Amino acid sequence: MEKEKQLLLLCRQLIERTLNWGDSDIWGNDDFEQLSQQIFDKTRVQLSVSTLKRIWGKVRYESFPNAATLNALARFLDYTSWRDFRQHHQVNGVIEQPVKINDSDTAVVVPLSKPGIRYIWFGSALLLVLGALFFMSSKRNKPIDPGSIKFTSKKVSDDLPNSAVFNYDASAFHSDSVFIQQSLDPNRREQVPGDGKQYTSIYYDPGYFIAKLIVDKHVRKETSVFIKTKGWKGILDHQPIPVYLSPEEIKGQGFMGITADVMEQKSGTPVFNNTRVKFANIREFPGINADNFTMDCILRNTSTPGQSACAKADLTILGNGTAIVIPIVNKGCIADMGILTGEEWVDGKNHDLSAFGTDMSQFQNLRCSVKDHYLKIYLNNKQIFEFKQAHTMGRIVGIRFEFEGPGQVKHYKLETPGGAVYEEQF
């Protein structure tokens, strides 16, 4: 285990050298968010900010990262796996040691397997080059006045789809690497002129989005974009533009939902694997705080086995910046699911989530509560999950039900101990 810890330290230092963001001791939350996004972009594995902070020693944590996390870090450095990384950096049981240039500079790794005078000359030359670059950079780069960085947004409509006009000013950086990212999704990132002033993005889905102004790979400023609905909105996922459902198409006898016939007509296919329909109510819920609430609902997926193999259903409680996403599925599909706790992604690949498997053809009572920083989830009045949250989600700004294939919601109730209650019997 001691050798694994040394390898992890080496891996951290190689990542720091790749990023070239300076001393990791002064990295802030924005830097770890950016690193999380870059790892996801390259590996399609989502490592949470809190996980990365534990790896970098920002948060006290005694356990060693699991295999999936280690593999993602290694793949970010272009190795096929953690084992591949270990084999490249361990010779005859000896791990390559990072050599510090000085107390403030980035580490340079010098292989131990082929010692010789040429490495001494190479290391000395590299020290001189890095020192010169650091000196020139420190002379050339003057501190940027935070007040000179502008980033705001305004919506152009109160309906869907909607557009946001971003007003920005990043000219103080004199950089060609300026991006506006619509939301936490790194795929929604567009490069903009470094000396530009405005940029417009279209939003097809409702939600509470945190847009980011990114300059030279650092998040410099954020602004919120709150795209609301007028009551419940039915949306059928379709690329590149979703299909919006009318109020008549989502209202049934005693439920909110969609029939298989309507879904087939709208999607053009009788098989709904990976075809999702959402029912969203995105708005303020006055009196509801995300640190003390209970959400109770009754729902089911009405797909036949031939229409949707897993018959997935999700409940999403949206906060202003993050969310809780709770899935339930047919029993055999629990490996292909995960829970978003408001902070971390709990993956069914490396956690036993079998309690979230059930008979989706029958109405299921799904309930969750947050109190004293504990998220608890219940299925049919039995507690099946618990997670300690380090931070609150802030305000609750939306509820969403999502189904793979057709589904129905019979009832929901959102309440707090203070007496605020939002309830609908469909």
State the low-pLDDT regions, or none: 99-120
CA-atom Rg in angstroms: 25 Å
Summarize model confidence as the mean pLDDT: 86
Question: Helicity level, as a percent range?
Answer: 10-25%
Summed up, the helix count is 8
Percent of sequence in beta strands: 25-35%
How does the major sheet shape up? Answer: 9 strands, mixed
Give descriptors for this structure:
426 residues, alpha+beta, nine-stranded mixed β-sheet, seven-stranded antiparallel β-sheet, 22% helix
Descriptive overview:
The protein is of the alpha+beta class and 426 residues long. It is built from eight helices and 27 strands. Strands 12, 13, 15, 17, 18, 19, 20, 21 and 25 form a nine-stranded mixed β-sheet that branches. The longest helix has 24 residues, at 117-140.
